[in-house]
C-alpha cells in the first residue's frame, strides 16, 4: 500500500510540474512567439472570432501535424498574412483546401465572422491543428500573467515549500549522522566488552593452570 501511495505521489508531482512548466512557457513567451513543448504549442485566444466553439481568452493546445492531413472543418492556428494582421497568430476553421503553384493552401473563417478571411493560408504558415480548448485554463493563464498574482500564488508558496523540504532534509541528515554516531559508539563499547571478556577468560585460564 505504501508503495502504491508513493507511486501516486510521484505521478501527481510529475503532472503538477508539467502543468507548471506549460503555464510558465505560456505566460512568459513574448507576444508573437509560440511556446512549444514536445511538438505541442500553447496559447490564448484574444478575440471572439471563433465563438462559441472557442470562447475569447481560452487556452489552446495545437499539435504540429503534417499540413497534408488537414481537412475542411479542422481548426488551425496560423500566421496571418492579412494586411491588418501581418505575421500575427490567428486561429480559424478551414473552409476549403486547394493547391496553388504546387503549394498547399487553405481558406479559413472564424465561426463568428460573416465572411472568410481575405487572405488564404499557406501550409508553411500553419502552426498546428487545435486539439484542446479550455476557457477555464485560459482564465487561469490570464490571471497568472499578472506579475503580482504570479508572485503571490506561485513564487512565494514555491519558496516556502522548498524551504520546508530543505529543513526536512537537514533534519534527516542530522538524524542519520546521529544514528551513525550512536551505532559507532555501540560498536566501540561492544568491542571493549569483548576484549575485557577475552582478557578475563585468559586470566582465569592462567589461574587454573
Radius of gyration equals 32 Å
Output the helix-strand order.
HEEEEEEEEHH
Beta strand %: 15-25%
Q: In which range does the helix fraction lie?
A: 40-55%
Strand order of the largest sheet: 1-2-3-8-4-5-6-7
Count of DSSP helices? 3
Profile the largest sheet. 8 strands, antiparallel
Give the termini distance in whole angstroms. 63 Å
Low-pLDDT runs: none
What class, by secondary structure content? Answer: alpha+beta
Anisotropy-based shape: elongated
Model description:
The model has no long low-confidence stretch (mean pLDDT 79). Strand 1 and strand 2 form a beta hairpin. The relative contact order is 0.11. The longest helix is centred in the C-terminal third of the chain and has 62 residues. The chain has three helices and eight strands. Helices cover 47% and strands 22% of the residues. Strands 1-2-3-8-4-5-6-7 form an eight-stranded antiparallel sheet. By secondary structure, the chain is α+β, with helices and mostly antiparallel strands.
Amino acid at each position: 500500500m505504501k508503495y502504491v501511495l508513493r507511486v501516486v505521489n510521484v505521478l501527481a508531482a510529475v503532472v503538477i510540474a508539467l502543468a507548471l512548466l506549460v503555464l510558465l512557457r505560456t505566460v512568459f513567451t513574448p507576444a508573437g512567439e509560440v511556446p512549444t513543448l514536445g511538438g505541442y504549442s500553447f496559447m490564448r485566444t484574444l478575440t471572439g472570432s471563433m465563438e462559441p466553439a472557442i470562447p475569447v481568452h481560452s487556452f489552446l493546445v495545437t499539435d504540429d501535424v503534417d499540413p497534408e492531413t488537414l481537412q475542411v472543418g479542422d481548426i488551425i492556428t496560423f500566421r496571418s498574412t492579412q494586411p491588418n494582421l501581418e505575421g500575427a497568430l490567428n486561429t480559424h476553421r478551414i473552409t476549403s483546401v486547394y493547391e496553388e503553384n504546387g503549394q498547399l493552401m487553405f481558406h479559413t473563417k472564424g465561426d463568428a465572422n460573416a465572411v472568410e478571411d481575405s487572405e488564404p493560408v499557406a501550409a508553411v504558415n500553419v502552426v498546428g491543428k487545435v486539439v484542446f480548448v479550455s476557457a477555464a485554463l485560459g482564465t487561469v493563464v490570464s490571471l497568472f500573467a499578472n506579475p503580482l498574482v504570479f508572485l503571490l500564488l506561485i513564487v512565494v508558496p514555491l519558496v516556502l515549500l522548498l524551504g520546508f523540504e530543505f529543513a526536512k532534509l537537514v533534519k534527516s541528515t542530522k538524524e542519520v549522522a546521529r544514528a551513525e554516531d550512536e551505532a559507532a559508539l555501540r560498536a566501540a563499547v561492544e568491542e571493549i566488552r569483548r576484549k575485557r571478556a577475552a582478557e578475563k577468560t585468559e586470566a582465569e585460564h592462567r589461574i587454573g593452570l
